[in-house]
Amino acid sequence: MNIAVVGTGYVGLVTGVCLAETGNQVICVDIDENKVKSLSQGIPTIYESGLERILQGNLFHKRISFTSDIIYAVENSEIIFLALPTPSSADGSADLSFLQSAVEKMAPYINDYKVIVNKSTVPVGTAEMVKNMLLLHTHQEVDVVSNPEFLREGLAISDFMKPDRIVIGTSSERAAEIMKELYAPFVRQGNSIYFMDEKSAELTKYAANAFLATKITFMNEIAQLCERTGANIDSVRLGIGSDERIGKRFLFAGIGYGGSCFPKDVKALNYFAKGVGYNFQILEAVHQVNENQKLALLPKIISHFKGQLSGKRLAFWGLSFKPNTDDIREAPSLAMIEALLQLGVSIAVFDPEAIANAQEKLASSVMYFDSPYDVLKDADALVIATEWTIFRTPDFMKMSELLKENTIFDGRNLYDIEKMKSLAFNYYSIGR
Ligand SMILES: NC(=O)c1ccc[n+]([C@@H]2O[C@H](COP(=O)([O-])OP(=O)(O)OC[C@H]3O[C@@H](n4cnc5c(N)ncnc54)[C@H](O)[C@@H]3O)[C@@H](O)[C@H]2O)c1
Asked: What are the DSSP calls for 144-198, one per residue?
């Protein structure tokens, strides 16, 4: 099939390369000329395991191309994916301006029947709005399908190639058949495609993210109780996770969720609910608790240094909002760094993949290192903000030699408390 993907970020690029990998002809469009140039040369613009190989392979076989010419892409495609940003507006609502601007641009060039597939996370009713916008400019038949994306950054390629499920929201049989054929290679192992109406598909995405954010936040609140009572969150997690109704995943306490999705989607669903006359109380609390949780290590740091933070130097392990991605959007590390800088602490950082993105955001306010051990030199203590696997079994002796004092503030509960005691570390973690 001939496919266009408009917006070549995390979702668009992964969608584009995976659809090319199954034999489709894919044109990826982006307004960012640098992105187009880099991707055309086979250089990935994001860090995702397996992406480089699949990108270069499909470029070599000429199944994928990159352009900033949306008109060319639209005129030459039967299916047009929209993978555009829907960030938070100041009031918490989803900002649809990127989506609207792309739709306005392409509308006059719909030269035949097309299926427009929206992969962006958008409020209920957006598919209908997009269709109405298109019909103002074209007399061709168009179907607008809602096909929310559930990939996880860090596992994006494998999630797209082997999805748990695919959700297709459409009331058009013709579009449903096309989508079924397009996704057939991805559901060969019996994983399901759920067909539903557009609105239900749009709400499914928000419901999934808001539920997961709530699950994480609930455990972080239980961790707060653990700290006040002497209970251990690890034991509580095992105790409840063995109940199948609860499940073992997403129960790890820490310094909160971040990323480009959970924070904005929780806010957007909350805002949207109010607009339709419903006060979604849990979401208000989830957002607020998570904002507080990002700073959960701060009182421990202040108390450890007896309030004398000015002139201290802290080393950070991890900046990305979670491991295996270079994405730092809304990362808890950033909230902590900002708070510590205000207290006069100097900050040295190491992250396996996110340094380039961090440099754009933090500029010269922190010092950057390319080794997890070099960053420790001259630091008073270490803060762990992201649970990259390379931090799980480090050389504690070497850390001890490099750090000024044996102190670790662990926002991701990586180490065994007894072991840290035996190694003579002052070890602070969450809920233990
Ligand atoms: N990142 C994720 O893990 C993830 C997962 C599921 C769903 N989503 C949703 O998918 C959507 C896209 O997210 P993302 O993380 O891929 O965003 P992103 O910011 O990484 O990428 C968006 C891309 O769109 C481009 N763009 C903006 N306006 C354009 C225009 N008019 N024409 C062409 N290109 C344009 C930008 O330059 C950018 O490259 C969002 O709604 C997000 O909530 C994201």
From this structure: EEE------TTSHHHHHHS-SEEEEE-S-HHHHHHHHHHHGGG-TTS-EEEEE-H
CA of 197 to the centre of ligand 1 (A): 23
pLDDT in tens, 100-111: 999 999 999 999
Do 282 and 401 sit in the same domain of this protein? no
Q: How far is the CA of 119 from the centre of ligand 1 (A)?
A: 9
Task: Answer yes or no: 226 catalytic.
Answer: no
Q: Is 48 left (phi over 0), alpha (psi -120 to 50) or beta?
A: beta
DSSP state of 89: P
The Cα 170–Cα 149 span in angstroms is 15
Structural domain boundaries enclosing 89: 2-196
pTM exceeds 0.85, yes or no: yes
Tell me the best of 96, 261, 266 to mutate to test the pocket of ligand 1, counting ligand atoms within 8 Å of each CB and taking the most: 261
Last-in-domain residue among 156, 172, 196:
196
Residues 184, 87 share a domain: yes
- Model pLDDT, residue 31: 98
Residues in the chain: 432
Chosen domain end from 263, 293, 323? 293
